[in-house]
Design brief:
Helix content is 35%, strand content 15%. With 489 residues, the chain is an alpha/beta fold. It has two domains: 124 residues, Orthogonal Bundle (Arc Repressor Mutant, subunit A), CATH 1.10.10.920; 266 residues, TIM Barrel (Alpha-Beta Barrel). The strands form four sheets. A nine-stranded mixed sheet has the order 10-11-9-8-7-6-5-2-12. The chain has a four-stranded antiparallel sheet with strand order 1-15-14-13, with no helix packed on it. The protein has a two-stranded parallel sheet with strand order 3-4. The longest helix has 20 residues. The chain is globular and about 50 Å long.
Length: 489
């Protein structure tokens, strides 16, 4: 069955040439750096001084430290030792599928295009071997509070292979996918009825669809070859499958995108009444398709345009009953949440399976090797598939008490609700202002902190708008050094 939303707006006429808008209400906005677009983080080091005086788009900080700060672990510590003594009552489980049908021009995720015959089967075989080894390292009563399948594109797998993926999560790892939140990423082309039926039957509570733009020419500009009709058909199938939460990803800052075309895409998404929307600023990263195209506009003009589009999109969603959860995430009022309230990303561990996945203990963040270049990615996947013994960590970074403080503050502060000061003191025996006086003073000077004096530390609306500068300002000098020394491959 195909579901069609009511009131889907028609595509706008050819928009006017984009202006270079002056951001309104930006007395506290830092000056824009002259870094070329192709040098945008995450591989660019982000010292506090550089982040405060440069572009508001330094780095999307979805984890700390970034994987470019990881290095090979010569001692290859056994997983059993790493997990011994770790709290395991509310773990997060993540399975990475590093395959896509196409590579978008902005993508620097760990993925390859297509797969030779037999590779997905061999990859799932290796994933099963890794899951067995990891489960042996965990406590017998270890429990998972939430799960996610990401990539890449998990729905690149066939329906039968998705069944097997769920079996690995449940039968090997012991995650109850019918009882915990399960989020799965999909693309319009791979969100087929048979795949969606498997995911719905196996307990998926959140289906995230990468759309990026409902305007065909903007999708082409982002090197994402898709048609709007294909997107709408996929959304119809997803709604018909009955997932409790639909998330739609959109991107602003695409070459040629204007406020009118951006709001058109938002309205096209809103016609499907998604429970969640993620609004991502476009980044052009090394070794990606867009990086090879060169710079369509000056960094200063692009920063101003992205900030203006962010504000327009934010206000558009807030006026339509959505609540801002972070700079990127918006949730419709009264919609179900696809997250586990008992899991805290600041303190609870994560188990990642598959090359491209990360695992977190309180002492070590670890993964496999990382690359963006197609040849390098294929080599890493081939090595993973050939691995027989997954009982040891290969790449990672040990954490320190100071880094634990930074991570806790960073991951809390980048959420709109901020952080309970009492929780920080209970964990570390100090206050953020004692541990990070320079950074917090800089945030305050820029107008990025909400009015103080209460029990919470939170960003102001302007601070949320500059989250991609706030996060890097909390990176330690050592992490900045490691990221600067990383050679993209």
């Amino acid at each position: 069955m195909t579901v069609t939303p009511a009131g889907t707006p028609a595509a706008p006429a050819t928009p006017a040439a984009p202006a270079t808008p002056a951001a309104s209400g930006t007395a506290a906005v830092p000056a824009v750096s002259a870094l070329p677009v192709t040098q945008v983080a995450p591989t660019t080091p982000a010292t506090p001084a550089a982040a405060a005086s440069g572009s508001p788009y330094q780095s999307y900080v979805y984890a700390y430290p970034h994987k470019t700060a990881y290095r090979a672990l010569p001692e290859r510590p056994p997983l059993r030792e790493l997990w011994a003594g770790e709290p395991q009552h509310a773990l997060s489980l993540y399975l990475h599928i590093p395959f896509c049908e196409v590579r978008c021009g902005f993508c620097n995720l760990f993925t390859r295009i297509g797969s030779p015959e037999g590779l997905t089967t061999a990859y799932l075989d290796a994933l099963d071997r890794q899951a067995a080894a990891v489960r042996e390292a965990l406590a017998g009563d270890a429990r998972f509070a939430l799960a996610a399948f990401g990539g890449g594109t998990p729905t690149y797998l066939s329906a039968g292979e998705l069944e097997r993926l769920c079996d690995i999560a449940e039968q090997r790892m012991g995650a109850d996918l019918q009882a915990v939140p399960l989020s799965v990423e999909a693309s319009p082309a791979t969100a087929t009825a048979d795949r969606l039926e498997v995911l719905a039957t196996r307990g998926t509570t959140r289906l995230s669809l990468g759309v990026q733009s409902f305007i065909d020419r903007e999708a082409r500009s982002a090197v994402r070859p898709q048609k709007r009709a294909e997107v709408e058909a996929a959304l119809g199938r997803i709604r018909a499958a009955g997932f409790p939460v639909l998330n739609i990803d959109l991107i602003y800052g695409i070459d040629g995108q204007t406020e009118a075309s951006w709001l058109h895409s938002l309205d096209a998404a809103l016609a499907w009444q998604p429970e969640e929307l993620y609004l991502y600023p476009l980044y052009v990263r090394p070794l990606t398709g867009l990086a090879r195209r060169g710079e369509p506009e000056s960094p200063a003009a692009w920063d101003a345009r992205r900030l203006a589009l962010y504000r327009a999109g934010r206000d558009h969603l807030l006026d339509r009953g959505y609540r801002q959860v972070s700079m990127r995430m918006f949730r419709r009022a009264a919609s179900p949440q696809a997250t586990a309230g008992e899991y805290a990303c600041q303190t609870d561990g994560m188990v990642g399976l598959g090359c491209g996945a990360r695992s977190y203990t309180s002492r070590l963040h670890y993964s496999f090797d990382y690359a963006v270049d197609a040849t390098e990615v294929r080599g890493i996947i081939d090595a993973y598939v050939a691995t027989g013994d997954f009982h040891r960590a290969e790449y990672g970074r040990y954490t320190t008490p100071e880094e634990a403080r930074r991570r806790h503050l960073l991951q809390s502060l980048l959420q709109a609700e901020g952080m309970e000061l009492a929780d920080y003191r209970a964990r570390f025996g100090s206050a953020p202002a004692e541990d990070f006086p320079v950074e917090l003073a800089a945030f305050e000077a820029h107008g990025w902190l909400a009015d103080g004096g209460g029990p919470r530390l939170a960003l102001s609306p302007e601070g949320l708008a500059h989250s991609d500068a706030v996060g890097p300002m909390l990176f330690s000098p050592e992490v900045c050094r490691l990221m600067a020394e990383y050679e993209a491959k």
